[in-house]
Amino acid sequence: MVLSKFSLFVCIRLYNLQFNMCSFWKFCWQLSGKSSSLHGNAIVSNNVCMTLTPKNQGIQAVLSSNSGTDVSTVTKRGGLRGKLNKVVLAYSGGLDTSVIVPWLRENYGCEVVCFTADVGQGIKELDGLEAKAKASGACQLVVKDLKEEFVKDYIFPCLRAGAIYERKYLLGTSMARPVIAKAMVDVAREVGADAVSHGCTGKGNDQVRFELTFFALNPELNVVAPWREWDITGREDAIEYAKKHNVPVPVTKKSIYSRDRNLWHLSHEGDILEDPANEPKEDMYMMSVDPKDAPDKPQYVKIGIESGIPVSLDGKTYSPAELLATLNEIGGKHGIGRIDMVENRLVGMKSRGVYETPGGTILFNAVRELESLTLDRETIQVKDSLALKYAELVYAGRWFDPLRESMDAFMEKITETTTGSVTLKLYKGSVSVTGRTSAYSLYREDISSFESGDIYNQADAAGFIRLYGLPMRVRAMLNKGI
Question: Where's the Arginosuccinate synthase-like N-terminal domain (predicted)?
Fold first, then answer.
């Protein structure tokens, strides 16, 4: 059927649709066919029947009677798909991120720039990474050494604040995510990318940590989270997808531990650890020896601290990353820093994890013990209460939140006099303090001594006790009718 110019005009006015030239002629051709059972004019494309409804009633998609095509075939064309030019992907070279590269290209039609941050995960994890990324379909791999920045600007502020999540967790992964995400934002600007992507699952904390950093540093960047979009439901599916797309992956279908390593710690999750009743297997540990196999002779280390920040070991000054790396070796040799805990994830569920933090455990003990000399009681109590909130903010990915930054300013100010040295004894998994010194020490031997002195008159204690205990005395008198 041949349509007149007037008919074409009527078609356009009636449906008020914007088509490209190809779709437009296809539309007009279909008008000569049969009307659909939905009382509209039908377009059949890729076995999906789309019914055009009058203006302002939208477009509906239904399955044609002879097709098994899912509705998602249509809906997946929406959103950002087809609109992104270049994506920066947080890339480790593991199974998940290796699969994400071809998935992004296939579903978003964009270039993929892989980004790897060296935060001390070990040189072996960086070997052959560029070849692997390009074999997966990436156009480029960018690697940045962030170790010094990680320790100086993220780990040490948390250490100074005394931030520990739920009484045990020293925030190893929590501190690493914002420094990686910040670098991704920088790389996106450098390569002209309009989006960033990560391989975090929809059940974990890391998705929040990455994306809150993206929001804080560049709210114009688009974020693609494949685990919240794709049909891959687990490791088996990911391996099959990788084989289909000829992507080299370093794992088999056998269940293994999920690990995250950086200069601060090594975490272990999954496998038998998913049952909190199971004891971890000894061969799981990688940074520390079994305490019973540690040396029979203790080792003493002296940590130098300036304004709440560690700066030296046994009198030798190190850079932040060098100091931590050295203490990891020493602490690991003595079985220091193993933690087994069930924690409350930000997304609401509980999870069980085992952490190795040898150097960090030594440093936390050192800083805390020096504060016992340099901070008064009220200051320590306020600092400890704020440290809980500080840890929660870091765990929740709110590193660049003004509240954490303000609390950090308080921590920096309050620890100005936390300068001195602490001697620690390392022995078969334990860390004990044997000595503390500081030029700003509030400890006075002439006051604390059992001997009488001019500053503290023991006779004054009687009046203090009567006044301090007055509320308790009054209550007792009331109860006895006195």
Answer: 86-248
